[in-house]
Amino acid sequence: MQEKRNFVRIEWPVIIQYKTLEEPYTEDHIRGKDISAGGVSFILYERLAKGTRLDLEIQVPFDSMPIFVKGDVAWIRQVSEEHAKTFEVGITFIDVDEKDQRRLKVYIENEIKERRSRSE
């Protein structure tokens, strides 16, 4: 199967605060599973519909200023039958300030370099 991603995705447990922009409004603070310059995935304890628009605030380690993005739910899947109310969701970023986009790319690139240097 060929990889369709445009950005490098890394496992990185960033803290995310999200809020839906449509009714019924929901919001939560969660830990991200992985992230790229174009999107993020995380575990939820509620079902969101594909296409749901979200405001996201991403807390990156070692930076007090969060990254603000708007995103759409690209996919959602139930984690397992045992955990009927647990879902993994993938968000595609659709509106990111240019400065925040650059910051996110730099953080990800630096994290990849750091991991490579630790493994050598």
Tell me what the structure shows:
The model has no long low-confidence stretch (mean pLDDT 88). This protein has one domain: predicted glycosyltransferase like domains (Thrombin, subunit H, Beta Barrel), CATH 2.40.10. It has a six-stranded antiparallel beta barrel with strand order 2-3-4-7-6-5. With 120 residues, the chain is an alpha+beta fold. It has one helix and seven strands, in the order βββββββα.
Number of helical stretches of at least 4 residues: 1
Round the mean pLDDT to the nearest integer and report it.
88
Q: What fraction of the residues are assigned to beta strands by DSSP?
A: 35-45%
The CATH class name reads: Mainly Beta
CATH architecture: Beta Barrel
Query: Would you report the number of β strands?
Result: 7
String of helices and strands:
EEEEEEEH
For the biggest β-sheet, the strand order reads 2-3-4-7-6-5
Domain unit count: 1
Question: Secondary-structure map with pairings?
Answer:
Layout: E1 10-11, E2 15-20, E3 27-36, E4 39-44, E5 53-59, E6 67-78, E7 87-96, H1 98-119
Antiparallel strand pairs: 1-3, 2-3, 2-5, 3-4, 4-7, 5-6, 6-7
